[in-house]
Amino acid sequence: MSSIIQMTVESNCARISIHNPPVNALNRAAFEALYECIKEAEKDPNVRVVVIVGSGKKSFVAGIDVKEVAQYDARQMAEFNCISGRALRAIEQCTKPVVCVVSGIAYGAGFELALACDFRLAAQNAVFALPELSLGIIPGGGGTQRLTRCVGPAKAKEIVMLGRPLPAEEAKALGVACDVVEPEKLEEATTNLVNELIQRPLIALAEAKLAIANALDVPIEAGLSLEQRAFMTAFQSRDGQEGIRAFVEKRKPVFSNV
User: Fold this and answer.
1) Which SUPFAM superfamilies match (predicted)?
2) Which residue numbers are catalytic?
3) Quick one: 209 and 164 in the same domain?
């Protein structure tokens, strides 16, 4: 595992920490380690939620390690994009909810990493940006695709083509951030969100995530068919039956995640 990426598991939560002072830039080894952490969390039956956080309060992730990629030729850069893309797709496709906790700047690959997550919880000092055009390139980690799906093409063009930063409150208004809190309350807000997700039935969470993820990628009829298959999977699960019985019996359901 990369020294930049570390994962701990406690109370059904896998916490992935990014530590690469001063700005938590991501290199090739970090993306490889991030992929392995996500796959490990996916397989671990004790993990119900994944949290990704950057060390320090001034920077979540300021982008890729430009000094490293400056040495790359075209073939090496293409390999880097494949490795980083694989890590972000693993986050996006993880059946368990993934929460990104952003304090400070989330630029370039940091914003792209956040966009791959299911929930983005931001401190008031958080700022999102995709400044790649200032380097003569464009986002290469899914930024043009995931951001457009999140905020629409007009706003995505403003953020990408003009390089305009997105402060936390505006990010919340656009749906990029699910909530914005004072920096000193960020950990508490993270714990509350994680606990809320842990209480939800795991199978239903996974099926809901799958259905929503495909909503913009397939025609409506295909999407509705997928939703029905996902619904039946959840309905036939033990938790699905327990939830319905609990509603009828006017009691709180006891989910077993099967």
Assistant:
1) ClpP/crotonase
2) 112, 132
3) no
pLDDT in tens, 106-161: 999 999 999 999 999 999 999 999 999 999 999 999 999 999 999 999 999 999 99
Clarify whether residues 34 and 98 are in a common domain.
yes
pTM of the model: 0.95
Distances (CA, A) of 156 to 61, 67, 153, 183, 197: 20, 27, 5, 27, 29
For residue 235, the enclosing domain spans 202-248
Q: How far apart are CA 38 and CA 50, in angstroms?
A: 8
Beta carbons within 10 angstroms of residue 200's beta carbon: 16
How many folded domains does the chain comprise?
A: 2
CA angle at residue 124 from 122 to 127, to 5 degrees? 70
Find residue 170's DSSP bridge partners: none
Residue 34 is assigned to a structural domain of this protein:
yes
